[in-house]
Amino acid sequence: MGLILPGLYLFLQKLRKIAENRLRKARKMNEQTGGQIDEGGAPLLSDQDVGKQVTLGVDDPLRLDCGVELTNFSVAYQSYGELNAAKTNVILICHALSGDQFVSGVNPVTCKEGWWDLVIGPNKLIDTDRFFVICPNILGGCMGTIGPKEINPATGKPWGLDFPVITVSDMVRAQALLLDHLGIEKIFCALGGSMGGMQVLEWAVAYPERVFAAVPIATAPHHSAQNIAFHETGRQAIMADPDWHGGDYLSYDSRPHRGLAIARMVAHITYLSEPALQNKFGRQLQDRDAISFGFDADFQVESYLRHQGSTFVDRFDANSYLYITRAMDYFDLAERHGGGVLAEAFRGVDTRFCVISFTSDWLYQTAESRAIVKALNAVAANVSFAEIKSDKGHDAFLLEEPEFWKVLSGFIEGAAERYGLVSQ
Amino acid sequence: MMTDAQKRAIRIDLQLIAEMVEPGSRLLDVGCGDGALLDYLHHDKQVDGRGIELSAEGVNACVSAGLSVIQGDADQDLDDYPDQAFDYVVLGQTLQATHEPHNVLANLVRIGKRAVLSFPNFGYWRVRTRLLFGGKMPRTNSLSYDWYDTPNIHFCTIRDFVDLCDQMGIAIERGIALDHNGGELRIGSSMRFANLIGEQAVFLLRKF
Fold this sequence. Notes:
CATH class of chain B: Alpha Beta
Number of strands of chain B: 8
Largest interface: A-B, 28 and 22 residues
Oligomer: heterodimer
CATH superfamily of chain B: Vaccinia Virus protein VP39
CATH architecture of chain B: 3-Layer(aba) Sandwich
Order of helices and strands of chain A: HEEEEEEEEEEHEHEHHHHHHHEHEH
Structural class of chain B: alpha/beta
CATH topology of the largest domain in chain A: Rossmann fold
CATH superfamily of the largest domain in chain A: Alpha/Beta hydrolase fold, catalytic domain
Shape of chain B: globular
């Protein structure tokens, strides 16, 4: 007995040392590589500035596709420019999976430029001196609109997985409620890329009388098996993280940062093209002259992806990621509005469409956009379609693409002229 | 937006086509190029116009000019459109470049209440004499390619075209031959003469 106790003590001391060493190594690696391991528990998205916020569903609840009714829920949004007296100069921007309402200027959360600051602002392509630009944070998001990290009034705890599964149609109906709340009847032009494009399509089909012009960019009328497969991989990474706690991580004061970072890394690959990755990184090594014969980030592309993953977890909620990717997977415009025939979904829609795709986008390929155009032609709808030559992959719509901008600007000008919005 | 000078500069066959179109109508221009006709018709005749163009440069130029144009091809994409969707479907100097002109023609009069076409006339006397006396494939103003690099793969004469319309049950409402100087000659009783002096032809058609 006299030997056992000191022996146990020494053994435990040894264990503690091993654990400390591992932690130190992990921290060091984290610093070197731009973040790979996160211990969780950091304050996330709690007291941040989400911009303007309204409470909707006060008188009438929002009935979701899954059957649940949402009442008194918050929707955050940003707006830029002035609404004119006739309320005819409204441009709605629909953001993508990992986007938010801060399209222009500086995003107060990331302290970086808004995600479409290249395009939207005073005297820019979408001129906020001329148009009233509004961008709501989507339903299920994590930037001030109701989502799984908000408090469930029924329990007083964060919704977590009790949050109802939402669809792209639900997102759009919530946006319609927001516009009702703001007294805006009609949108001059709705624009969005990727999942934003899905919302734009849903807007035009669900509320054709409220949308004069629509620009779905780099998007699809439904998710392909490959799209769903990539999303499922991301979701599984999140759910496999022990810090996820069955979706209840907020109660444990932890965050599934590793899972979410991996989900982001996988997704990020799908946003780029093979030539873009090759040109940017090739096989170049990261801060070293030779391979390390280990699993550190030897290659620049590894370091880049780790960085993408680790910065994403600071601004995004893991459960939101699950819900939003699910909504995208469920999106099927033909099934929902056309009895399985896409053209039927567009019947009677007299919105002016401008469908835009990019040659190197393998996530939402040109063929998907062409299917939208074919369906629009089948009902003789008013449609423009341009495939832009670019090697930047799916993300091309967020980047500097002069040909894309020329087409976009021309379409908006042409639509504005026909809508009676005189250029200043 | 086009200046008056630019408007005047639209191709002679396009001017003739534009004259045949009623103001305020719905029109589809197949092979609309840089959109000159659509732009002209929008501004001068308040036409609700759409276009299909094969080249990406043409499409981007059109959309950048505010015109509703898609990238597509007369052989492939006309099948998508419903019957009688437009008042007019225009095919300017494109029929001879299609793979199946008869199917394209059938689609034009199906989609449009009326179809307006222009095409180079292979019966034009300069074409005939170059082949007869020169023994070489003809090259004229409206046929400016060499035989090996021409996109024009299905030539016809005015008489061939009129025969095809007869066979397909397509009514010719107007037919005009344009001579080398843009002079107009109505294609009717003087068909053989028109077929000889017409460098190109413009037809207004509808299904019987």
